[in-house]
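Q: Predict the bound structure with coenzyme A.
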Amino acid sequence: MTSSPYLAPIEDSLSTFKDNIFSGKVLFCTGGGSGICKGMTRAIMRHGANAAIIGRNIDRLTETSKELSEQTGKTCIPIRADVRQPQTLQNAVRRTIEKFGRIDFVICGAAGNFMSPISSLSENAFRTVVEIDTLGTYNTVKATIPHVRDAKGAYIHVSTTLHHRGTPYQIHVSAAKAGVDAMSNVIAVEEGPHGVRSNVLAPGFTSGTEGMRLMTGKTKVKADGFSTPLGRFTEIQDVANAAVFLFSPAACYITGQIIPVDGGAEHLRGDLFPYPSSVIDPSSVRKLLKGKM
Ligand code: COA
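A: Predicted complex:
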């Protein structure tokens, strides 16, 4: 999985946290059907929580919820909702409460992405990503906040490091995720007095995800020393471990923070994109952007 065994992320079964730290807790996760959010949900469930996973593709959600329930011995329910439609989210919250009686933790993870230069990005394409990522986060927080206040719980928003610099072909995602980061800070300040915490996890280029496939045409790509200081790309498990920490009592005084999980990649000159040709085949980028430049 990685270039060095010393750098491999700790699997859930070897977690440094006790198995039952989230016993009796409930996670509400948008985008939980696949990728990073699925991995975070599994890790939170492995530490004792039940979960509701929310997304647009009910077949995928159903399959994932079965898999996660079997793997963890906890209960995961799939709920169809579009984060752009507040009523569907309110319905998802209602069903979660009917099933579990509470919501302690929320992961705002639903996101959309594709590569496009601004010169060929339509207004609707820009709006679509901002609506899924930014408005979707707002809608998720609005729908869940009364329950998260009751539980004195916490939010994790899934962002990125792309917008920390000017990343080409990502103007829509950069705008959307900058909004997510800003909202998390406001939520931390406004909701702190109610006992609610809000933090952002900003994964780097992550193996095994749709984002990796979109950028490279493959889900697994080998990193080199020029692409991340730690010599490999982010693994889903890295982000899952960070989520366990952020929801755990060990992080009870951490709020309003944006935490990259990128092996230090954002501090490298020339990081992120364009990636070195050993990582991204320039011809595959040209193919993805064909006719758009
Ligand atoms: N390049 C440029 N524009 C694109 C595009 C691409 N690759 N993909 C979608 N768009 C544009 C569409 O053309 C449309 O704009 P238009 O009406 O001006 O033509 C607009 O975005 C909305 O597209 P649509 O497919 O109707 O939206 P959707 O709500 O069904 O899905 C996404 C939007 C972003 C979720 C979709 O592109 C997608 O499924 N992406 C892959 C999954 C993903 O992003 N996972 C997360 C990875 S981090």
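A: Strands lie at 26-30, 50-55, 76-80, 105-108, 154-158, 197-203, 258-261.
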